[in-house]
Amino acid sequence: MPLILAILLLPLFLLSPASGNKYTVGDEQGWNPGVNYTVWVDKHRPFHVGDWLVFYYQSGMADIVQVDETAYDKCDASHPISNYSKGRSFAFELNQTKPYYFICSYGYCYQGMKVSVLAHPLPPPSPPPSGDHSAARSVAGSPFFAFAASAIAVLGLFF
Ligand SMILES: *[C@@H]1O[C@H](CO)[C@@H](O)[C@H](O)[C@H]1NC(C)=O
Ligand SMILES: *[C@@H]1O[C@H](CO)[C@@H](O)[C@H](O)[C@H]1NC(C)=O
Ligand SMILES: *[C@@H]1O[C@H](CO)[C@@H](O)[C@H](O)[C@H]1NC(C)=O
């Protein structure tokens, strides 16, 4: 069923580049103890506003607690900004330009089960291919243009 959904939704993602990228936290290792998330972040950054972090974990074995920087450094989940532990996955949209901090409150944070990403502003739309003018010039100088021009000239002789 999820596969069918993915296939159905795939064209939507392909058609809407503005919807942001989806990053599976920890890649195939998921959200689990013993994964170095600093390495994961270094591999995937930069992250941008509109990107999604998707956490996959074993049901009942982990939670995702969003905290501030101080709490992140201390693995302190006592004053969460938000927390999530239901089911087996959690998707979070980076919807502001700022750093985000997530920890697991089940005791694994001290061994590194924490992740912090900085959401950068959206990159500016890619500039139009440079030199529309030079493209026009190269058409004008092309053999096709020369052929078309002479064809028109020849037609002009008849009309
Ligand atoms: C998560 O949130 C619920 C409800 O807001 C709260 O009862 C619980 O203590 C929180 N857990 C953690 C680890 O912050
Ligand atoms: C940003 O995301 C949070 C949590 O996903 C949500 O509660 C909030 O409404 C969102 N803000 C905007 C401006 O979309
Ligand atoms: C993660 O890997 C980085 C780079 O190899 C290393 O500096 C850091 O200490 C590691 N963190 C943990 C929690 O093992």
TrEMBL record:
PANTHER family: BLUE COPPER PROTEIN (PTHR33021), OS03G0758500 PROTEIN (PTHR33021:SF547). The lineage of its organism: Eukaryota, Viridiplantae, Streptophyta, Embryophyta, Tracheophyta. The keyword Signal applies. Residues 1-20 form the signal peptide. Residues 21-121 form the Phytocyanin domain. This is Early nodulin-like protein 1. The keyword Signal applies. It comes from the Eukaryota. InterPro entries: Cupredoxin, Phytocyanin-like, Phytocyanin_dom. Keywords: Signal.
